[in-house]
Amino acid sequence: MTRTKDMWAEVNYPPTENQIKYNTMMLNYEIFDEIVYDVCTTTRTHKDELFNKTKDNHVTSARYLIYYLAKLNGYRLSAIVRCMKADGFETTNSTIIYGIKETEKKIKKDPDLAKYIKNWNPKSK
């Protein structure tokens, strides 16, 4: 067996626990898909509407809720961008940050939304 640079790096610089967790999350879109499905069902928004450039308040609020739940479940901004792009929607980090902040404002005003988020749990975790 020949030693390669990758083998040497893996032995001498093993990945950290956070890197392993992040890579596993990037390979696993199940939780993100679960978030999208649940938000679509709860808000009665069709998935096609979510991943179009629709700027209806109802649709953008649902999108922001997806961002918020994904962030709560440990997704980084870049991972959320990739997941959205995989479903055909181009977004940016700044849009996601704005959406998360808007959702936080709504949680303070809407007890039903706060209860929904508090009780939301992915089945695939």
Can you give me a brief rundown of this structure?
By secondary structure, this protein is an all-alpha fold. The protein contains 8 helices and no strands.
Protein architecture, described:
The chain is mainly α and 125 residues long. Helix content is 71%, strand content 0%. The chain has helices spanning 5-12, 17-27, 30-43, 47-50, 57-72, 77-86, 93-109, 111-119. The radius of gyration is 17 Å and the shape is globular.
Question: What structural keywords apply?
Answer:
125 residues; mainly alpha; 0% strand
* Overall spatial form: globular
Mean pLDDT, as a whole number? 83
Uncertain regions: pLDDT < 50 for 5+ in a row?
A: none
Radius of gyration: 17 Å
Portion of residues within helices: over 70%
The secondary-structure class comes to: mainly alpha
Please give the alpha-carbon distance between the first and last residues.
Answer: 38 Å
Roughly what fraction of the amino acids lie in strands? under 5%
For the largest beta-sheet, the strand count, sense and barrel status come to: none
If helices are DSSP runs of H or I spanning 4 or more residues, what is the number of helices? Answer: 8
Order of helices and strands: HHHHHHHH
Number of beta strands: 0
